């Protein structure tokens, strides 16, 4: 850009600099932050694993198989149920879901030790005399009765469906304990029927987990009993 300036000595043409053009390009828009990865739900593995073992045990308790086939549920419990619950426990722990990991860990321990008890007594793995077999089963039931009673109390801050389910597990253990110590077929069958109620609740929780995992709405689980 030029400009003519009159001066006593004559006209002088002077270059006048034009407006400055920025040499740096305009920075690109900041890229949007990536969406956080969805949090996993160990229930999609743990719940069906629990359900299949509970169904098998309930059928044994109500007399679907003869008494001589009382160990018919063990193949399912020892493999599918125990392995699935162990996977769910590790998964929940990795996610930092301590309460969930504790629940699945307790159930995994119960099913694994139940399989060990039935197989051990049936094959005399632990050198327990035949006359002491009933007492050994009572010991097993009392020990787990305490754990699930504590789990019920500790779960009162969870949605209501969970402590109710844990309380029903306590009822089942008490009924099996009565049926074992008496012995009483009626108590064992009643335990099986109560276990079917637990199975229905577990199925509801599994449908809830699958619904949320596939982008659906969560099902109502009830307010916490203790806030």
TrEMBL record:
Report the family membership. Belongs to the acetate uptake transporter (AceTr) (TC 2.A.96) family.
Q: What membrane topology is annotated for this entry?
A: Multi-pass membrane protein
Residues crossing the lipid bilayer are 44-65, 72-93, 99-126, 138-154, 160-178, 190-207
Name the domain of life this protein comes from. Bacteria
Q: Where is this region: Disordered?
A: 1-33
Q: What is its main location?
A: membrane
Which PANTHER family did the record assign? ACCUMULATION OF DYADS PROTEIN 2-RELATED
**Gene Ontology cellular-component annotations:** plasma membrane
Q: Which UniProt keywords apply?
A: Membrane, Transmembrane, Transmembrane helix
Q: Where does the secretion signal sit in this chain?
A: none
Q: Where is the composition biased (Low complexity)?
A: 21-33
Where in the sequence does UniProt note compositional bias of the Polar residues kind? 1-14
Q: Know the name of this protein?
A: Succinate-acetate transporter protein
Instruction: Name where it's found.
Output: Membrane
Q: Name one GO molecular function term.
A: acetate transmembrane transporter activity
């Amino acid at each position: 850009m030029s400009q003519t300036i009159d001066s006593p000595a004559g006209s002088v043409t002077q270059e006048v600099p034009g407006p400055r053009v920025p040499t740096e390009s305009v920075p690109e828009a900041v890229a949007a932050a990536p969406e956080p990865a969805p949090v996993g739900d160990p229930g999609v593995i743990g719940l069906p694993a629990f359900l299949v073992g509970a169904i098998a045990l309930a059928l044994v308790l109500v007399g679907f198989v003869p008494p001589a086939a009382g160990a018919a549920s063990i193949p399912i419990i020892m493999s599918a149920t125990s392995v699935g619950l162990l996977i769910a426990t590790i998964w929940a722990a990795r996610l930092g879901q301590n309460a969930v990991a504790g629940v699945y860990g307790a159930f995994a321990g119960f099913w694994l030790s139940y399989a060990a008890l039935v197989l051990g007594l049936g094959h005399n793995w632990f050198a327990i005399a035949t006359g002491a077999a009933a007492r050994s089963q009572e010991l097993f039931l009392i020990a787990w009765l305490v754990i699930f009673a504590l789990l019920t109390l500790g779960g009162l801050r969870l949605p209501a469906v969970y402590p109710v389910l844990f309380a029903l597990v306590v009822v089942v253990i008490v009924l099996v304990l009565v049926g074992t110590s008496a012995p009483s077929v009626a108590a064992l069958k009643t335990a099986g029927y109560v276990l079917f109620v637990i199975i229905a609740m577990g199925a509801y929780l599994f449908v809830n987990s699958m619904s949320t995992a596939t982008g659906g709405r969560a099902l109502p689980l009830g307010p916490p009993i203790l806030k």
